[in-house]
Specification:
Helix content is about 55%, strand content about 0%. It is globular. It is mainly alpha-helical. It has one domain. α1 crosses α2. It contains 3 helices and no strands.
Length: about 60
């Protein structure tokens, strides 16, 4: 996340309530908004473990 309370965190690591809040309020414009919408879909459908496995397999 590039700004705010969760600055520096991966989008997948944002709390679900925060992503849901953005879903209700409206995602930001541009690439960040698209990525946040994708994270929302992953979380809602219980698929965030896929990203966590990738993060674990390919650490920074």
């Amino acid at each position: 996340m590039p700004y705010g309370k969760y600055e520096g965190r991966y989008l997948i690591d944002l709390p679900e309530y925060y992503i849901v809040w953005y879903h209700n309020k409206g995602f930001p414009k541009g690439k960040l908004g698209v990525m946040m919408q994708q994270v929302y879909e992953l979380k809602v459908n219980g698929l965030e473990h896929i990203i966590r496995e990738i993060k674990h397999k390919y650490p920074k």
